[in-house]
Amino acid sequence: MKEDRLKKMIKALYLLREILKQKREDDRAFKYKSKLKVLTEVDEIIDRSLEDFYSLRIN
């Protein structure tokens, strides 16, 4: 059950990252944080989620 939720969240985060990559740097979405910083934070969340997912599968 938790694996399925994590898998869906990871897929959504990958989709979010691809959408953010397509946006321009001067887009309103990056008014408070730069595009690079936002993408870095999304990548960190993906990495942590993958770690959780694989630790659940091992146990």
Task: Provide a descriptive summary of the structure in words.
The protein is mainly α and 59 residues long. It has one domain (2-58). The protein is 76% helix and 0% strand. It has two helices and no strands. It has helices at 2-22, 35-58.
The average pLDDT is 88
Helix content: over 70%
What does the largest sheet look like? none
Shape designation: elongated
Rg, alpha carbons: 14 Å
Number of helices: 2
How many extended strands? 0
The poorly predicted ranges are: none
In N-to-C order, the SSE pattern is HH
Number of domains: 1
Strand content: under 5%
Structural class: mainly alpha
Task: State the gist of this model.
The chain has 59 residues and is mainly α.
Features of the shown structure:
mainly alpha; 0% strand; 2 helices; 59 residues
Topology of helices and strands:
Elements: H1 2-22, H2 35-58
Helix pairs in contact: 1-2
